[in-house]
TrEMBL record:
<dbReference type="GO" id="GO:0016491">
    <property type="term" value="F:oxidoreductase activity"/>
</dbReference>
<comment type="similarity">
    <text>Belongs to the short-chain dehydrogenases/reductases (SDR) family.</text>
</comment>
<dbReference type="InterPro" id="IPR036291">
    <property type="entry name" value="NAD(P)-bd_dom_sf"/>
</dbReference>
<keyword id="KW-0560">Oxidoreductase</keyword>
<dbReference type="InterPro" id="IPR002347">
    <property type="entry name" value="SDR_fam"/>
</dbReference>
<dbReference type="InterPro" id="IPR051122">
    <property type="entry name" value="SDR_DHRS6-like"/>
</dbReference>
<keyword id="KW-0521">NADP</keyword>
<dbReference type="InterPro" id="IPR020904">
    <property type="entry name" value="Sc_DH/Rdtase_CS"/>
</dbReference>
<dbReference type="Pfam" id="PF13561">
    <property type="entry name" value="adh_short_C2"/>
</dbReference>
<protein>
    <recommendedName>
        <fullName>3-oxoacyl-[acyl-carrier protein] reductase</fullName>
    </recommendedName>
</protein>
């Protein structure tokens, strides 16, 4: 069971990329339950996005359709959050683009898109958000970023050379930027989930043979649930982690 802490994020404004499904949707639900206002950035169509946020109090949530592989649309995640809610405290660079297969078989377009979503988009979001966060001179913590990477970005994995390389780049960026901005009062951390039950990994759960093969490499012999990952990500965003920056945690369900 995953518990919520009502009021923990009262007054906070959060932007989440990939916020309408999987881990992003779990983050959105829990942030709203804990008092935050949330901009949900997702490339799903407007009808699906509006349908997703209809379950929440309208004053706490805003859906922003964005294909963050485009630099202008990535930047718009920040500008739209501030335009709608008037502030920005926490950013989750959560969106990813999967491209499975060995490198010789991968198209240049797929390679490029994985990096556009997984590395370039966070770059543009960092550039837009950090100057805004620095304006929070009255706050001990002026801003927080929590990046969703992947165990493939730390250990590598079969068929995930491209995806893992992009996530490794974001992990390194997490370390470097945390050092750059610690004295600005901005914390930057990341979590590297292993196998998690999301739309991106649905095929692993639907095929019994694949399920058993993947489960055997996970200590708990099951996938993580999005809500379980959201709990870890939100701890890093909370004031309970006020002394944590530059961390890249692979502890949620690592392989053995």
């Amino acid at each position: 069971m995953v518990y919520t802490f009502p009021g923990r994020f009262d007054g906070k404004v959060v932007a989440i990329t990939g916020g309408a499904s999987g881990i992003g949707a779990a983050l959105t639900k829990r942030y709203i339950a804990e008092g935050a206002k949330v901009l949900v950035a997702d490339m799903c169509d407007e009808a699906k996005g509006q349908g997703f946020i209809a379950q929440f109090p309208p004053e706490q949530v805003y859906f922003h359709h964005a294909d963050i592989s485009d630099p202008a649309q990535a930047t718009s995640v920040v500008t739209k959050t501030i335009e709608h809610f008037g502030d920005l405290d926490i950013v989750h660079n959560n969106a990813g683009y999967p491209a499975y297969g060995q490198i010789p078989d991968m198209s240049v377009d797929d390679w490029a898109r994985v990096f556009q979503v997984g590395v370039d988009a966070p770059f543009h979001i960092f550039r837009a958000a950090i100057p805004e966060m620095k304006k929070h001179t009255e706050k001990k913590t002026r801003g927080v970023f929590v990046n969703t990477i992947s165990s493939a970005g730390i250990y590598g994995d079969e068929g995930l050379g491209c995806y893992g390389a992009a996530k490794a780049a974001l992990a390194n960026l997490t370390h470097s930027m945390a050092a750059d901005h610690a004295l600005d009062g901005i914390r930057i951390n990341a979590v590297a989930p292993g196998w998690t039950r999301t739309p991106m990994t649905a095929a692993l759960s639907e095929t019994p043979e694949i399920f058993e093969h993947v489960a055997s490499a996970v200590p708990m012999h099951r996938p993580g649930e999005p809500e379980e990952l959201a709990a870890v990500l939100m701890f890093l965003a909370s004031e309970d982690a006020s002394y944590v920056t530059g961390a890249v945690s692979d502890k949620p369900s690592p392989s053995v």
